[in-house]
Design goal:
mainly alpha, about 80% helix, 12 helices
């Protein structure tokens, strides 16, 4: 009995940590909260809840509550601390996240194949990979700068929600080329209502308009949709790898490699733990 209680407590803590990582992924540059929600295995129930909140409230909220609490802490609380670390040690920090995502790819691949694989599955994965890779690379090289205002903060909310609904679409990657990322994140951390209100409206409108559509795609075309997500995750992960930092010095290369390995090992261990809990 005591072992069962301890296992449940450890599972709860792990889920809150996963939620915190998702929250951090939503706000840190180059990372996608949607990608992390996929690799942690909660993307589908989140989408079901967003698409039909009244229908799935009783069944999904108890399961997702630890993730939601962790996500709120990660997004609003710990994000400032990790943003500082990311600012001081940007390349090793990103490599750690890349390692986490890479280590979760085997479980993501298994989940994508739950209903079998067809030629169309591989085609959807390849198409999604190419489209997202080209889009993110294009955004990375653009240099558009605009003046933020109410309408643009609506757009920021749209991008924030999109980064959860469409894995791989990091809202920071979308906003940085436009010069909107820093004022939007600072406004959130300072609880600035002039930014929170339009951002919240944009995010809510996006969820209402797109959640049902994407959930329908999963219901009707599971294997195509999930394999497309695999392609998106791989493309988004490749884009954020700080390749140039590996050539700066031997010490920099070693630090990046260590962070990659730590992330991969931690993700594989977490996946194994989750499988053990589910079996148990």
């Amino acid at each position: 009995m005591k072992n069962t209680e301890n296992k449940s407590l450890v599972k709860l803590v792990f889920h809150m940590i996963q939620g915190a990582l998702i929250g951090l992924g939503a706000v840190l540059p180059g990372i996608s909260g949607g990608v992390l929600s996929v690799v942690f295995g909660i993307y589908k129930p989140v989408m079901e809840l967003l698409a039909n909140p009244f229908k799935h409230f009783k069944t999904h909220i108890p399961r997702l509550l630890p993730y939601l609490i962790g996500g709120a802490v990660g997004f609003l609380g710990v994000a400032k601390l990790l943003a500082f670390v990311l600012d001081k040690y940007p390349d090793p920090s990103v490599c750690l996240f890349v390692g986490l995502i890479t280590g979760m790819l085997p479980s993501l691949w298994r989940e994508a194949g739950e209903q079998g694989r067809t030629r169309g599955s591989y085609l959807s994965m390849a198409a999604a990979f190419v489209i997202i890779l080209v889009l993110l690379l294009a955004l990375g090289v653009s240099s558009i700068v605009i003046k933020p205002g109410f309408g643009w903060y609506l757009f920021c909310g749209f991008c924030l929600a999109l980064s959860v609904i469409a894995p791989g679409m990091s809202f920071s990657t979308l906003l940085m080329p436009l010069g909107l990322y820093t004022p939007f994140v600072e406004g959130i951390s300072d609880l600035n209502m002039k930014i929170l209100i339009p951002g919240g409206i944009g995010a809510l409108a996006t969820v209402i308009c797109l959640a049902k559509l994407i959930n329908m795609l999963f219901d009707r075309f599971y294997t195509y949709a999930f394999h497309a997500i695999v392609g998106i995750v791989v493309a988004a992960t490749i884009v954020i790898i700080p390749f140039q930092s590996f050539a700066v010095s031997a010490a920099s290369c070693l630090a990046n490699v260590i962070c990659l390995v730590v992330g991969i090992v931690a993700a594989l261990a977490l996946d194994r733990f989750n499988s053990t809990v589910e079996v148990g």
